[in-house]
Structure formats: structure tokens, C-alpha cells
């Protein structure tokens, strides 16, 4: 596939600290995807970039991820950034206020039990309970994808209020119909995000909900890697995106007027 991938990142001169708001997915975007979701981490240089951009934009930088707020705080420590967790269900805004809708915890528990039974029969599968959703990871047993997806479809059929999400080597049942796009829209109604140009970067299917709302704000979407997307821009690899992130930081630091 080499050579077919297009690097089409937004030009740095289109982005200014005073008018840009950043929204970043986490896994596959800031953090490398690894076999065990618990083992993923954000490299120190990327944490440094996030802090630089968060300060330069007066706090208009949020992480919009499928992970829970709790997991994201651990991965991003010592930073305490605005966050949207569990694909937009949970949100912590720029003032530190947490929004988390009520959900059917009993149904989440029942789904988790059913998936745990399946996982117990197949070594290498991982069931992850994230407050309002339950994920089934099959990265270490990709040949089990058809079985995993048919189980998830059946369980989804038994819980009509839940939404079935697909990702890279993962399927997930969510107790809410909120999306990453809803979370970005909520941030864009509030300081310090309101009135800025949103830039959203993601690599997976659920990020498309985020790309879909950007047009309303003349925002810029950047898709990492292959696959159909609504994003206008694309960077071929996570390393390519990290190089672009460093370039934004360096440009903005250099352009800062001398004291
Ligand atoms: Mg991702």
C-alpha cells in the first residue's frame, strides 16, 4: 500500500493560537495501539506538545476518546485536560465540571456478564467495562472476529436502548446514543472553545461522528491512516501526525513575541 497513502495535513499558517481549538482522539492518535488496552501510553514528548498547545490556546484543547475520563486522566497524567470519555457519553469541560448522563447500570452489568462468559471460553479476548459501555477486544484473536461480532449483534438485539459501535479489533455496546460529535458540539458552545476554529484528529470509525459536525464551524478534520472518512485532511501514520503536532508547537513557540 506504500505510496497510495496521502499526506494532506492542514498548512501550519492556517492555524493561530488565538483562534484554534484542538480536539484529539487518544488511541491510534496520541497513543500507539497495543494488544492490551491497559498497556497503552502517551509518550512524554506528546504530553509536552499537548501542554504547550493547551496553554497557547488558553485551554481550548480537549481529548475526545472511547476511554473513560478516569482512564484518560491516568494516561495523560500529570496533565488535567478537558475530556470527553466513552465516545462522548462523559464530558469534563474547561472549568472541570463533569457531565455524565444517567444510564441503565443494571443492563450494563448483564451485558458484561454475558461477554465475560464468552471471554472465559476464548483466551486472548478482553472484556472491558467502561461505566456506560462494555467493549469486547479481539486484537489478540483476530480470527474470532466473526464469532465476536455475531455475539455482539445478538446481545445488541436483546438491549434495544444500547448502541453497537465498531472499532479497530473491538466492538462495543454503549448505553447512550451520544457521540463524539455531540461532545465536540457541547465544547464549542462554551469558553474557551466557542468562536474558535475546531481541529479534530482521529483514526477510527467512531471519530467520523466528530468529523461530521466540523462543517458547522468551518472546522478541519484530520483522519490518521486508511479508510473512508468525512475528514478533509489525512495523515498516513501516527508518527506522521506526531511530527505535524511537533511542527505546530515549534511554529507557535517561535512566533511568540519576545518579552
Ligand atoms: Mg482511536
Description:
- There is one protein chain.
- This protein has helices at 44-56, 69-76, 105-121, 145-158, 180-188, 207-213, 238-255; strands spanning 20-24, 61-64, 83-85, 90-92, 98-99, 126-130, 133-137, 163-167, 170-174, 197-202, 220-224, 233-235.
- The model has no long low-confidence stretch (mean pLDDT 93).
- The protein is an alpha/beta fold and 259 residues long.
- The chain has 2 domains: 17-100 and 178-254, HAD superfamily/HAD-like (Rossmann fold, 3-Layer(aba) Sandwich); 105-174, Alpha-Beta Plaits (2-Layer Sandwich).
- An 8-stranded mixed sheet has the order 5-4-3-2-1-10-11-12, sandwiched between helices. It has a 4-stranded antiparallel sheet with strand order 6-7-9-8, with helices on one face.
- Strand 2 (61-64), helix 2 (69-76) and strand 3 form a beta-alpha-beta unit.
- The radius of gyration is 18 Å and the shape is globular.
- It is built from 7 helices and 12 strands.
- The structure holds magnesium ion.
- Residues 25, 27-29, 202-204 line the site of magnesium ion (MG).
Ordered list of secondary-structure elements with their pairings:
Layout: E1 20-24, H1 44-56, E2 61-64, H2 69-76, E3 83-85, E4 90-92, E5 98-99, H3 105-121, E6 126-130, E7 133-137, H4 145-158, E8 163-167, E9 170-174, H5 180-188, E10 197-202, H6 207-213, E11 220-224, E12 233-235, H7 238-255
Parallel strand pairs: 1-2, 1-10, 2-3, 10-11, 11-12
Antiparallel strand pairs: 3-4, 4-5, 6-7, 7-9, 8-9
Helix pairs in contact: 1-7, 5-6
The structure holds magnesium ion.
Magnesium ion (MG) is lined by residues 25, 27-29, 202-204.
